[in-house]
Design brief:
four-stranded antiparallel β-sheet, 107 residues, alpha+beta, homodimer
């Protein structure tokens, strides 16, 4: 997890999920791990990068083949349940941005 | 810095900068702060979100009005110098992805 994702030649898609946590830890780590594993097994999943600062901002970027894969993952039953808990229990604020990756480079 | 960026209605653009640091701290924190301040003053800059895990992955997402603003910031003289130091001194690996944000939602 804690590394740079190996993604294919663009174009492909990304979901940038930025969030601030509440003080409620109950069930969070388990669910985060479970959702990460589940996402990785969805059709069209290309990779994920995730970092959270203790008590601060978290950024998770997941990469997908197309917007249809993203839509299906968003609507996945177990993920829907996790999203609801996230909104009500674990995140004081969050933002989700869906993006088309058009260019990529690095070392 | 350590909060969710207030961005306008899509479409707009993002640069997702993912990196792993070397053990070399010399000058890094100062330069990171300087570049963040400089970026914030560039035309077309819309916001930034940045998180680094101690000794691990860092993700910085900067938001921009258009690809021309991104191109100009990439080519900014002081930023070019910082990029060169980054490649040779501070980052063992990094990836830069340029993206068009097409949809956004949150609480």
């Amino acid at each position: 997890m804690n590394q740079i994702a190996k993604t294919p030649e663009p174009p492909y898609y990304a979901v940038v999920f930025t969030s601030v946590r509440t003080a409620t830890d109950q069930g969070y780590a388990d669910m985060a791990e479970k959702m990460m594993a589940l996402a990785s097994n969805q059709p069209g999943f290309l990779g994920v990068e995730s970092v959270r600062q203790d008590g601060g901002l978290g950024i998770t970027v997941s990469y997908w083949k197309d917007t249809e894969s993203i839509r299906k993952w968003k609507n996945h039953a177990a993920h829907q349940q996790a999203q609801q808990l996230g909104r009500h229990k674990w995140y004081s604020s969050y933002r989700i941005r869906v993006a088309k990756i058009v260019r990529e480079y690095g070392n």
